[in-house]
Amino acid sequence: MQHKKDILSNMLKKDKIKLHFLEDNRDYTVDYGTRLEQFVEKYSEYHKGPILAARFNNSILELSKPVEWDGSIKFIDISELDGLRIYQRSLILLANVAIKRLFGDDKKMIVYHSIGRNLYCEAPGLEITEDFIRKIKAEIKKLVSMDLPIEKITVEKNKAIEFFESLGEYDKVRLFKYRKKKTVKLYKLLDYVMYFYGYVIPRTSFIRVFDVRKYNKGFILMHPDPNVPDKVTEFVEIPKLTSIFLEYEKWAEIMGVRSVGDINQIIVDKKIRDLISVAEALHEKKIALIAEQFMNSKARIILIAGPSSSGKTTFSKRLTLQLRANGLKPVVISLDDYFVDRDRTPLDENGKPDFESIYALDLELFNQNMLGLLNGKEVEIPKFDFKTGRRVWKGKKLRISSDQPLVVEGIHGLNELLTSSIPRELKFKIYVSALTQLNIDDLNRIPTTDTRIIRRMVRDEKFRGHSALDTLKMWPNVRKGEEKYIFPFQEEADAMFNSALIYELAVLKLFAEPLLVQVNNSEPEFSEAMRLLKFLDYFLPITDLDDIPKNSILREFIGMSIFKY
Fold first, then answer.
1. What is the pLDDT of residues 148-191, one digit of tens each?
2. I need a surface site. Which of 41, 55, 282, 422 has the fewest CB within 10 A?
3. Domain assignment of residue 400, yes or no
C-alpha cells in the first residue's frame, strides 16, 4: 500500500507549479513547494488589512505551507470572516504564551465567550489587575516585535495525549481521546506548544493591532475592526447578554460539562439521557420564569425577537403554553402578515429587495391594529399571500379582552420603531438566541453562529428542500441582516432566553455531516463546509433520538415536534 502511495505522489509531484492570483488575474510559474508567504508583500496593496492566509482552490491554505500543485489563489485578510478567525486565534496564542512567560509554564488563559466582537477571557489562579493588563500588553508587543516563527507540527495522537496529560491540560486529553484521526496538528511558539482548531499566522509580526482591558473577573482580548483594520473593535458593554453567558457557563461547570471532551465522555459512559433531561428541564424552568416575569409586569403585548435559527417559534409556543397554565389566553399575531406588497419592498444597497428591513413591514397598519386590539376594539387582521406577493383580506376579525396578552414573533420585535404608537410599559420584550455555552477546549471556543448555521442547514434540508450549499450561500446575507436589524437592539430586552442545548451538536452531527460532504470543492463555500465538518468531527454522535422530548427546541430543526409550524 505504501509503495502505491509513493508512486501516486511521484506522479503528482512537479518541478514547477502554475499559480493564478485572482487579485490581479496574473499567472506565475514557481518551484514546487513554494510558500505563499513570499507573495504577501506584493499583494498587500490589494487589501486594507494584513494578509493572513490564502484561499487555494477554495480551500484555506496557511501562508507557511508549501504549495504542491497548480491552482488559483485569493489572499484572505481580516475583512473576511475566515481572516478574522485566524487573527483571533493567533492573538489568543500570543496572549497565552505571554501569560506563561510572565507567570509560569503552569499558568494559562481560558477563552469563555464573545462580548460583541471581542473575547472575554480569564486566567485561573491569577489576579487580574491593571498591572496584570499592562504586563500582558507589553509582553504581547514584545513577541510581535521579535517577529518569531509559529511552527506547525504533526504528532501522533497518543503522543499528543501524553504530552498534554503531562501539562495537566485534561480538556485536550479528553478532546483527542475519541477523535478518529491518528495524528494531531499543533502550533509551537518558542518552547510553547498549543492546539488550535483552525489556522494561525506564520509569524508573530502579523499581529499589528490589539488591546487588552480588564473586565469583570477577567479581561477582554480586543482585535481590529474588520472594517477599519488599523483600529481595535470598539468595546461596547452588553451586560444583559453577558449575564446570560455567565449564568449558563456556571450551570455547565456545576454539571461537569465545559468542553466537547466532557460531552463525549458522558456519551461513552451512557449517561447522556440524564444530561438531556436536565438540559431540557432547565429550558422549561427558564420559560416558566419568563412567563412569571411577564405576569408581574403591566405589559399587554409580548414581542419576541432573535437571530436566525434561534428556536424563536418553539420558544413562542412553549411560552404560550406557560401563559395558559397561568390562566391567560394569549393571542398570537404573525408579523409576516404585515409585509407591504412586494413591489413596495425597500431595496438594499445592491438594488435588491430587502425583506429583512423594518420598512418591508406596514408599520402604520400594524400599530393601528395593535392599538385597536389593546383598546378592546374589533380589528380585521390581514393575510399576506407569499405566492402573489400581495396582502389579501379574508374577513378575519379579532377582538381581545383585557386579560389576553398579544404574542408577536419577528426579527424587529426589540426595535421601538415597530411598535412606536404603543406605550413602552405595555410592551414586554424577549430576546432569544442560541448562546453556546460549550467550548472545544480552554483556548478554542464555539461561536454561537456555528450552532445556528448547523441548525438552519438541517432544518432547510428537512423542511424547505434546500441543500447545505444553498444555506451556506445565503448565510452571509442572513448575518448581515442580523447585524443591522437585531443585534443593535438586544439590550432592549426585558428578558433573555438562551435556546442552546448543551448536547445538541452531538445530535445535529448525524444530520449535518451527510449534507456538508455534498458541497463540491468547485464552490467558494467549500472551505466553510470543510471547517464545519472538521468541527463536527470532534463530537461523538447521540444516536437514540427518542430521548429528546417532542417539545424540545431541537425538534424544530430535526423534526418530530409536537408543535405545528
1. 999 999 999 999 999 999 999 999 999 999 998 999 999 999 99
2. 41
3. no
Residue 89's identity, in one-letter code, is R
Q: Does residue 314 lie within any of the structural domains?
A: yes
User: Inter-axis angle of helices 170-177 and 157-167, to 10 degrees?
Assistant: 160
pLDDT digits (tens, 9 = 90+) for 63-72: 999 999 999 9
Nearest alpha carbon to residue 52 among 82, 72, 32: 82
How many other β-carbons are positioned within 10 Å of the β-carbon of residue 462? 14
Grid cell in block for residue 145: 516585535
Parallel, antiparallel, or unpaired: how do β-strands 397-398 and 390-392 relate?
unpaired
Residue type, 77: D
The cell numbers describing 557, all together, are: 430543526
Domain shared by 159 and 177, yes or no: yes
How far apart, in Å, do the first and last CA atoms of the chain sit? 53
Do the Cβ atoms of 398 and 373 come closer than 8 Å? yes
The number of folded domains in the chain is 3
Q: Are residues 270 and 317 in the same domain?
A: yes
* Domain interval for residue 262: 239-330+405-558
Tell me the backbone φ, ψ of residue 506, rounded to 5 degrees: -70, -20
Q: pTM of the full predicted structure?
A: 0.93
Structure confidence by residue, pLDDT tens digits, 89-113: 999 999 999 999 999 999 999 999 8
